[in-house]
């Protein structure tokens, strides 16, 4: 527990750890700032701070960095100069840029209505065991090539041990009875989000990604959903071309920052 009064007048602010991953900045029994640490499915720890006072932000950042092992990450909207400055004071630097997209579902806009499923390919909801095998194979390919850090940031809570997979969130493509690609949709949000779309390297350039998108977006359109969201690392030019080819519009840019300093 720490206390300080710098920049806040005579009344001191106390930094309290209120849970394993939460901190409060308190003055006169009022919470004037909050900090959170979340461990994501890929094992990385992301920090966030909510306060409007620079001095409180800095103290929360120090407390959280002292507690969490390096590296630590955070995500900031590129237009939020004040938040960028706060994390910069805490020693964070930009490590990747991610474009957000709003993706239409109407086949008259996407042009996916005329997309034929490639020969020998079937689109369906997966079973858990082969889905996990496909997920692990795709992760291994991405990690050995561009690195998993270039994939969309994962937001499901860390469970420890084996990563949880919910087959209901996935649609898969099978070629000749073997899983070849997948798409994951986070539907329990205000606007559905494409969390991941990936195809095994040996099955790429055969229209499988477009077939998966056509199947999922068409189903969402029929159920009354006009648009979904997606995030793409800006080094992934193929994914950006794919989304822009079906009428997706950029909705902003998020910057992922990292602090690698050991305490």
From TrEMBL:
Q: Which PROSITE patterns match?
A: GNAT (PS51186)
Q: GO molecular function: any one?
A: acyltransferase activity, transferring groups other than amino-acyl groups
| Gene3D superfamilies listed in its UniProt record | 3.40.630.30
Stored Pfam families: Acetyltransf_1
- Please give the GO cellular component terms listed in this UniProt entry: ribosome
Top-level division of the source organism's lineage: Bacteria
Could you tell me which residue ranges the N-acetyltransferase domain spans?
Answer: 123-263
Which terms are listed as keywords in the entry?
A: Ribonucleoprotein, Ribosomal protein
Q: What is this protein called?
A: Ribosomal protein S18 acetylase RimI-like enzyme
